Amino acid sequence: MSEFKPEVTLREITKENLRDILRLKVAPNQEQFVAPNAVSIAEAHFAPETAWFRAIYAGDVPVGFLMLEDDVVQQQYFLWRFMIDERYQGRGYGRKALELFFEHVKTRPGATVVDTSCVPAEGGPGPFYEKMGFVYTGEKEGDELCMRREL
């Protein structure tokens, strides 16, 4: 008998679930790769025209967070933030959440690719992003390497 896998969904962050989302954390050795969710949510509120952000749930349990830079004017779409709480990594939730994210981006005007960037370091998200179809573009943004995925 196979192990039960709860459905992964992307949900709006509300005053009812905000504290749960703020409590989510990556492993200590991953903290250099992604800002805390409180910082991401604050940044989103100062960029309401381009920030689209959601909590990642497995069933009714919040397990992560993601944020899209949604620039419909330039028709550019960027995976701005992505994290899965350390307690829930390795269960396929991140993979499913990004599949849902890609489906959302496909609904945006002129969306044919989605970009992201990551710090090239041991334990970083680069290998995971590659498994999800991102490829390195050869460009850099600060000390991060740029990646792109066709939709």
CATH architecture: 3-Layer(aba) Sandwich
What name is given to the CATH topology? Aminopeptidase
Q: Based on CA inertia axes, which overall geometry fits?
A: globular
Strand order of the largest sheet: 1-2-3-4
List the helices and strands and how they pair.
Layout lengths: L7 E4 L6 H6 L13 H9 L5 E8 L2 E11 L4 E9 L8 H14 L6 E6 L7 H6 L3 E7 L2 E7 L1
Antiparallel strand pairs: 1-2, 2-3, 3-4, 5-7, 6-7
Structural features, described:
With about 150 residues, this protein is an alpha+beta fold. The chain has one domain (about 10-150): Gcn5-related N-acetyltransferase (GNAT) (Aminopeptidase). Helices cover about 25% and strands about 35% of the residues. It contains 4 helices and 7 strands; from the N terminus they run E-H-H-E-E-E-H-E-H-E-E. Strands 1-2-3-4 form a 4-stranded antiparallel sheet. A 3-stranded antiparallel sheet has the order 5-7-6. A hairpin with a 2-residue loop joins strand 2 (about 50-60) and strand 3 (about 60-70). The mean pLDDT is about 95.
